[in-house]
Amino acid sequence: MDFFNVVVRFFQEGGPFMFPIALVLALGVAIAIERYIFLSGAKRTNKRAFAEIEPMLNASQYDSVVRMSERDNAPVTRVIGAGIARLKLSPRRDDVEYAMEEGLMETIPRLEQRTPYLGTLANIATLLGLLGTIIGLIAAFSAVANADPSEKASLLSQSISVAMNTTAFGLISAIPLLAFHAMLQTKTTEIVDSMEMAGVKCINLLMAKKSLSANTRASDE
Predict the structure, then answer these.
(1) How confident is the model at residue 66 (pLDDT cuts 50, 70, 90)?
(2) What pLDDT is recorded for position 165?
(3) In this predicted model, what pLDDT tens digit does every residue of 19-43 receive, in sequence order?
(4) In this predicted structure, what is the pLDDT of residue 161?
(5) In what residue span(s) does the MotA/TolQ/ExbB proton channel domain sit (predicted)?
(6) Dmax over Cα atoms in the chain, in whole Å?
(7) Which pLDDT band, with edges at 50, 70 and 90, does 3 fall under?
(8) Any alpha helices (H) in 74-151, and if so which ranges?
(9) 147 with 109: CB under 8 angstroms?
């Protein structure tokens, strides 16, 4: 209860700039939670989807993979589905790789969506804190100029303490937002790397099957 009272008093003494900083913090936390849930879901669906696709590739059920990529929302299915669709038009490895890279480039923006906002919101929170402190100090010095000389020292120290609350709250808001930003970027990079690895596995498997098929036809002839 004492901690709650301290927080409320700290917020009240900070002045009007505490409210926009609190709004920035709330918005950043909401974005961080939404992105974490989305990326965690994408990671799970990718793992599940590739576990389903790999047996299809081993069985050369390419049409099934393409159909799955059309109905499944896992990012990795779109990447592999793009490569399989191109394989039907051109068996060259480079063409299949380009198609998968194109599918990956279409998927990455959805994974990175709104994450950069966290860095921007952290900067905004810091700047609002500094602005609140500057305006508070200006108001404090103006009040001290017209105050009784015996009260100037105590009034000035009290006013400065109150003005510094906004800077403290701005930093308190900015630090976790920057931490969330770094965490989500790392999580996004891991997902992208896993999709690239899945694409390479898929291409190697397709080319190995193609080479085996060609060797089988050559031996039959």
Answers:
(1) confident
(2) 86
(3) 999 999 999 999 999 999 999 999 9
(4) 72
(5) 73-197
(6) 109
(7) low
(8) 75-89, 93-112, 115-145
(9) no
- For 88, the 3-state DSSP assignment is helix
How far apart are alpha carbons 198 and 196 in whole angstroms? 5
User: Could you tell me if 100 and 80 are in contact, meaning their C-beta atoms sit under 8 angstroms apart?
Assistant: yes
The residue whose two tokens read 């480079």 is: 94
Answer whether 128's CB lies under 8 Å from 216's CB. Answer: no
What letter represents residue 138's amino acid? I
**Cβ-count burial 170-180 (b if 16+ within 10 Å, e if not):** beebbebbbeb
Q: Is the pLDDT of residue 208 over 90?
A: no
CA-based nearest residue to 43, from 207, 206, 193: 193
Q: Is 58 helix (H, G, I), strand (E, B) or coil?
A: helix
Burial class (CB in 10 A: 0-12, 13-18, 19+), 121: buried
pTM (predicted TM-score): 0.82
Q: What is the number of helices (H) and of strands (E) in the chain?
A: 7, 0
Domain ranges of the chain: 2-216
For residues 50 and 191, is the Cβ–Cβ distance under 8 A?
no
Average pLDDT of span 112-135: 92
Amino acid code (one letter) for 40: S
Q: Which helix (H) or strand (E) holds 14?
A: none
Cα–Cα distance, 119 to 139 (Å, whole number): 31
What is the arithmetic mean of pLDDT over 80-86?
A: 85
Q: Which candidate, 31, 59, 69, places its Cα nearest to that of 195?
A: 69
